[in-house]
Amino acid sequence: MKHDFEKLFLAAPSPFVLLDRDLKMVWANDAYLHATGRSREGIIGRAMFDEFPSQPESGPGRMLRASFKRVFEDGVTDHLPLIPYPIPGPDGAPMERYWSATHTPISGAGGEVEFILQNTQDVTELYEPARRTALPAPDLADLLRRADHVTRQIHELDSTAEFFRMIFDQAPSFMAILTGPEHEFRIVNDAYMQLVGQRDLMGRTVRDALPEVEGQGFFELLDKVFRTGEPITLKGAEIDLQRTDRGPSERAYLDFVYQPLTGRDGSTIGIFVQGHDVTAQAVAEANLREAEERFRTMAQTMPVHVWTARPDGGLDWLSDQVYGYTGGTEAELSGTGWVSVVHPEDRDRVGAVWERAVKERTTYETEFRVRRADGAYRWHLVRATPILDDRGGIIRWIGTNSDIDEQKAMSEQLADLNATLEDRVEQRNRELEEMHAKLRQSQRMEAIGNLAGGVAHDFNNILQALSGSLAMASRELPDEAPGRARIEAAMGAVKRGASLSSQLLAFSRRQALQPRPLDLRDLLQDMDQILRSAIGEAVALEVEAPDDLWPAFVDASSTENAVLNLAMNARDALAGRGCLRIELSNRHLTDQDVAGDTEMRAGDYVELKVIDDGPGIPAETLNHVFEPFFTTKPVGKGTGLGLSMVYGFVRQSGGRVTIESMPGAGTVVTLSLPRAERALEPLRSRYAGTVPGGHESLLLVEDDPDVRDSTAAILEELGYSVRTAPDPGAALEIMKAWDALDMVISDVVMPGDIGVGAMVDALRARQKDLPVLFISGYSRDAIARDGRVDAGVRLLIKPFSQEELAVKVREALDARGNAFVGDGPTEDPVPPASLETCRVLVCEDEVLIRMDIVAVLEDLGADVSQAATGGQALKALEDGEFDVLMVDVGLPDMTGVEVAHAARAARPELAIVFCTGRSEVASADEFERCAVLQKPFCDKELTAIVRRLWISGTEPGGGGVH
């Protein structure tokens, strides 16, 4: 049988109303409408307290609201036996009414209370007569009194429970009551809900409500408390909680107690959980510990002393550097013990400053001397800063000690320097004046040198044409012919002109020098007769030289001219009578020795002193002796170029000239010449004293027609077949139709679009071992660097004689395939050892030198690659394998030393050969398996060094070579 319960409730004689969770009336039966005097349309959807208002603080208001709350929270029926509750009547005036109410929970689909069904009875008519009179029926009166008493008790109980619930919820600590062995939640406060997150806890066990706590040990502790009845307290317990649904796990730190609750029989019926969330405190403490650890780590690693002090100024911590520096212990230095390492003279001053800083809570800063462990005192800058709390009180001092002993010393030196500032300014002004004077002199010399170079080129061509023509004319005349004397006089004039041109180039440092290792003792021995003849029999000549004299790296002929020039100057000063002494010695010049000389560097030098005991030179004259064209000799007795020529030659060679003289005390002229690593055996031409000829085919390239014709005539007279070209372009055209060519003779400076270097490069591309002899009156930089002829270059200086030309041509032809035999040794060259399988990279920017080196090495079987710049060399090293790197020290894009460093970084096993015009390379000592090959060098030297370095790297235990 089916029933319509809504109709049943509508027709029920007892009043019913249905309230939702917002206490809105959603349904009411007719009896309720009749009891309250309301219509259904007027109350449905309205909140009960809007329709039947009451003050929440009033007794009826608190009783009704408390009943609703109990039903919603506990889900159980609640009764109000008697509640006075006035309601507005039809006229709106409040009517005093008494009610008896029952509130029944109606659960929804999820099990929570969704509605309250209120059954209410108006008992006003029963209660009022009993209240006004004391004569109601005994049973009814008793019933009403008891109902009123119960209602009041319930009201008081509600008030008390509400009070304790308010305290429970508003307590700063989290609290919960768990019941039963499964620990079901019965009461939790707001703090607990904030801890675990807003989740449904009531009536659920802890394992069900807090599943993420499983495995952390807390459930086991609850079980233990319930089992034993003994409370458990924990401090700073770590717990991971999921505070939001599906949110990340969060770490919390708790101080709490599990307090057992016992029943009347003494058994445990539940557990009271109470505690505090101390996460913020724990994190702060952890951060503080971490910060302190960072501070200590930083303090221990800082290069200064670090210390801390208490608010009263006593030191309570010092870094290890303090203990290590002073040698003191913690017991000796803590508190005020640190004063013991302060210098006695500084203690009173320092103590007063520290006490004032502590008293005034200001930054502490002072300087004093601290005793080191070895007893020495050093100045320190000491600073300390107070750390203050919110009220301005000192929490701690943090200080540092910085060693400033060197700064103190520098400050004292600076004070001394400031005291002598005026003297130093004056000295500096003098130095600047000297520098400006040197600059002006350098500019004058540069201008004169440029003029001399231009004049020398054309002048020497003229002299060469004259010399060649005069020589041929002389050979055509019989010995007794009257014109021969005039020709010989003209030849003398040509030689004097050549000497003048040579002197011009010398003092302007434009000579084409060919320096090589030279034993000055041998040179003076060879010059002995010339010197004695030049100074005369009345002047005694003495030569002093040690047995261990170093070889010098100079041009031989220029050195001879310089010595001869100085000897004749001394002869003139001695007026033909006295003593001339020449001393040779080894000398190492330090940085101090060469200070102020921008062209000199410290190192080893060979000194040649020319000393006379003549009348000396006045001071006003001494300052001008090296100036060109300055002379104290009568007109016609000197050009004034002698000493300036010596000065220019020595400077161009990398040395210096000094002169010391006082009236009546004689004169000393000192030449400091750069030292060579070794001395070579004297090289003498095998054709000395002869005029050798031949039948080879020669190509002469010369732009001056007179020089070209006279030189060609001399060569043809010597038996050679000669073709001539006025410029490099014409020479290349001739070569296209001429295969039988044995040698090229070429001027260095010529007009045209094609340079001499490019011409030789093209000629040797067609004929690999083609000998080349350069003739020049002024080479500029075509075949020379800094005035030094490049290694491997054969040069004949204009003007030259038939004999000089014949010897140079014959030597070049006989040395074919042996490109680096300078003037040719007297003995036959020894065939060099084979270099088969040796891989060599040659880095040289001068194409002629590079091609000659490559030719020599390839003839010996070496696998040779070429590079013109440092960048090309490094690229070649990236792409290929090499055993030896030959590198010129001066390259257009970087130095040879820089190339060597980069090459060794990529290939540590690579052997290095530095090619240089100087006697040494300072950085060569930094490398193992390294050698210096000094220009000019012969093929035997080249082969020997390459082979030695190559073998040292292939043989077991091969070591470095320097």
Automatic annotation (TrEMBL):
Residues 364-416 form the PAC domain. The modification 4-aspartylphosphate is found at D747, D888. Residues 454-677 form the Histidine kinase domain. Keywords: Coiled coil, Kinase, Phosphoprotein, Transferase. Its EC number is 2.7.13.3. Residues 1-52, 291-361 form the PAS domain. Residues 697-813, 839-950 form the Response regulatory domain. Signal peptide: none annotated. The keyword Transferase applies. PANTHER family: SENSOR HISTIDINE KINASE (PTHR43065), TWO-COMPONENT SENSOR PPRA (PTHR43065:SF42). This is histidine kinase. It comes from Pseudooceanicola batsensis (strain ATCC BAA-863 / DSM 15984 / KCTC 12145 / HTCC2597). The lineage of its organism: Bacteria, Pseudomonadati, Pseudomonadota, Alphaproteobacteria, Rhodobacterales.
